[in-house]
Write a structure and sequence with these properties.
Length: about 325
């Protein structure tokens, strides 16, 4: 099996590549990534000499790059490549449309011409917008994205649907809840708060801190993605949830407690514009049709994550001392 993974130098993509190497050792994996600020080859250092893995630098929104990589021929494509941070999409929506929408369309278009047996589009629960308490979006719920990031992912999902309907292309979409675990870029709330708390820096909680998210350990998501890739039906959408719903305030208190840091580090700051109050997914379909359920309890996953960040300080120190610092210093100057 020859698999093209786009965005494999990012958080979920690098975890997925490692998951495939461990669980499908005969698969040939090509990682195609243009190494934006969020792409980091250090995430895959341990695989550098693996004969079944290769890296090719390229941009999913560049026709020459995509044409060149597809020339070698693939059975499956898994598209993780994206701009993925909601806060950044509020400052610079254009790059989100370029990568997430136009890039996905270009990839679909050229992959279709080379003939592949599956194209897996990695999407998100954010496309459904905010859910009321005890409401859960299923795969038929309306798309009501609120941030430019969510709108770009919802748009890409619709383009995927159209390639299935119009050209019979074997596209499948997954929509997962919030992931956490090793190698997550420290702009996302869990590693952001962990790395700041370790330095006794304040943790800026947006609004009243009562927005809630469902958290899935990244390895559980990798297992679900592989299940969908191997057994999912073309044209279908599968929600991937975890039943680990927490308010941001509770999440922050758990992180502080596990790190032995005081609650006084929490600072309530101005809310994120269009901040979705809650995401809730109904993921009965993936359980009923493909027999997948998450395995990792939040309390175990968060402990493993903390242990990983403690053991890999150099990995995140290199990131937070680099280019990325400029973004978040400006961002937090904007918040009161
Ligand atoms: P990430 O930001 O950590 O990684 C994104 C990767 O894509 C990076 O390696 C980056 O270099 C690469 N990339 C960006 N633009 C590219 C381009 N034009 N061409 C090639 N590569 C490009 O993101 P992540 O958190 O790992 O998310 C991966 C995917 O999963 C995204 O599509 C995201 O929308 C989706 N998703 C993420 C979550 C989550 O909680 N993190 C939840 C649901 C869905
Ligand atoms: O400094 C912060 N303070 C804060 O209160 C940050 C960075 C976040 N938050 C809140 C906002 C959210 O309610 O924490 C929650 C999680 O925020 P993020 O980590 O930015 O994630 P979210 O906006 O929920 O989006 C994530 O999950 C869905 C990923 O970034 C997306 O790529 C994915 O599609």
């Amino acid at each position: 099996m020859r698999v093209l993974i786009t965005g494999g130098a990012g958080f979920i993509g690098s975890n997925f590549i490692r998951y495939l190497i461990n669980n499908r050792p005969d698969w040939q994996i090509t990682n195609f990534d243009n190494l934006t600020y969020a792409g980091n080859l250090a995430n895959l250092d341990d695989l550098r000499d693996n004969d079944n893995y290769r890296f090719i630098k390229g941009d999913i929104s560049n026709i020459d790059d995509v044409r060149a990589v597809l020339e070698s021929g693939f059975d499956n494509v898994v598209n993780f490549a994206a701009e993925s941070h909601v806060d950044r999409s509020l400052y610079d929506p254009g790059i989100f449309i370029k990568t997430n929408v136009l890039g996905t369309q270009l990839l679909l278009d050229l992959a279709q011409k080379t003939g592949i047996s599956k194209f897996l589009q990695v999407s998100t629960d954010e496309v459904y917008g905010s859910q009321n308490v005890r409401e859960y979006a299923d795969e038929k719920s309306p798309l009501l994205p609120n941030s430019p990031y969510a709108a770009s992912k919802a748009s890409a999902d619709l383009v995927c649907r159209s390639y299935f309907k119009s050209f019979d292309m074997p596209v499948i979409i997954t929509r997962s809840c919030n992931n956490y675990g090793p190698f997550q870029f420290p702009e996302k709330v869990i590693p952001f708060f962990m790395t700041r708390a370790l330095k006794d820096e304040i943790l800026p909680l947006y609004g009243d801190g009562l927005n809630s998210r469902d958290w899935i350990y990244v390895e559980d998501n990798c297992e679900a993605l592989l299940r969908v890739l191997e057994s999912g039906d073309p044209g279908q959408i599968y929600n991937i949830g975890s039943n680990n719903e927490l308010t941001n305030l509770d999440l922050t208190q758990i992180i502080l407690k596990l790190l032995g840091k005081p609650s006084s580090l929490i600072k309530f700051v101005e809310d994120r514009p269009a901040h979705d109050r809650r995401y809730g997914l109904n993921f009965d379909k993936i359980e009923n049709k493909l027999g997948w359920l998450p395995k990792i309890r939040f309390i175990d996953g968060i402990q493993k994550t903390i242990d990983w960040y403690l053991a890999n300080k150099q990995w995140w120190e290199n990131i937070i001392s680099g280019e990325y610092r400029k973004f978040y210093e400006q961002h937090y100057r904007n918040l009161r």
